[in-house]
Design goal:
Layout: E1 4-9, H1 16-27, E2 30-33, H2 34-47, H3 57-68, E3 72-77, E4 80-85, E5 88-89, H4 97-107, H5 110-121, E6 128-133, H6 136-140, E7 146-151, H7 154-167, H8 174-190, E8 203-206, H9 212-227
Parallel strand pairs: 1-6, 1-7, 2-6, 7-8
Antiparallel strand pairs: 3-4, 4-5
Helix pairs in contact: 1-9, 2-4, 3-5, 4-8, 7-8
Length: 229
């Protein structure tokens, strides 16, 4: 049986996570939040005081071993998806800016990307998968039938992130968030392995001035055409 795969790539704050979840629910497909996997590994390495020593060969070998045996769980219910690392609920923790920076460091290391590659591939199961990340279409699932690249200006993404964090009760400055986003974009786009970029056959959407509903409609129209629905 054919496994339908929909990929959504793009920079941080473009709305990938929200829309990927809506698409997975709409099509009743499995969901892969690849960014969460990188954030979980980044958090784990930080907790073990290893995140700032990835340039040391012996430390990197230890980190690869940790990545290979990372104890993570995604548990979905009516309230959403809860994410566990070593049986501890880290759903909110991994969404912080600091852990996002850890994830970006992890993603820039080829050996760690390889260690996480197969872990992501096994999410492709019948009837289908919606995979959200930065290199889903270009590297992890190049065979995907529907490939979307969702982007937005750094300024609009910073505004969204500030509102999200303020909604969590955090006091943040938009200038700090914008600087972090620009730094992550640069690191993700310039890394030597699987840099952030659209697949050649991707459907590109700029969500800067669009609502979630507008983007969702554009996506489903494109996906339905690609999957022959």
């Amino acid at each position: 049986m054919t496994i339908h795969i929909i990929t959504i790539d793009g920079p941080s704050g473009s709305g990938k996570g929200t829309l990927a979840a809506k698409l997975a629910q709409h099509y009743q497909y499995h969901l892969l939040d690849s960014g969460a996997i990188y954030r979980l590994l980044g958090l784990s390495l930080h907790q073990k005081d290893l995140i700032d020593s990835l340039d040391q060969i012996l430390i990197l070998e230890q980190c690869v071993e940790i990545a290979t045996h990372l104890d993570i769980k995604f548990i979905s219910d009516v309230k959403g998806t809860q994410i566990y690392l070593d049986d501890i609920d880290v759903t909110e923790t991994i969404r912080t800016e600091r852990v996002g920076e850890f994830a970006s460091k992890v993603a820039a290391i080829p050996a760690l990307r390889v260690a996480l590659f197969e872990r992501q591939r096994i999410f492709a199961q019948v009837p289908g998968l919606v995979a959200d990340g930065r290199d889903m279409a270009t590297t992890v699932f190049p065979e995907a039938q529907a490939k979307i690249y969702l982007t937005a200006s750094a300024e609009s993404r910073a505004e969204r992130r500030v509102k999200q964090l303020q909604g969590m009760g955090l006091d943040v400055k938009i200038s700090d968030i914008l600087s972090n986003i620009q730094a992550r974009d640069k690191r993700d786009m310039e890394r030597t392995v699987a840099p952030l970029k659209p697949a050649e056959d991707a459907f590109i959407i700029d969500s800067s001035n669009l609502s979630i509903e507008n983007v969702f409609t554009l996506m489903t129209d494109y996906i339905d055409a690609q999957l022959g629905k």
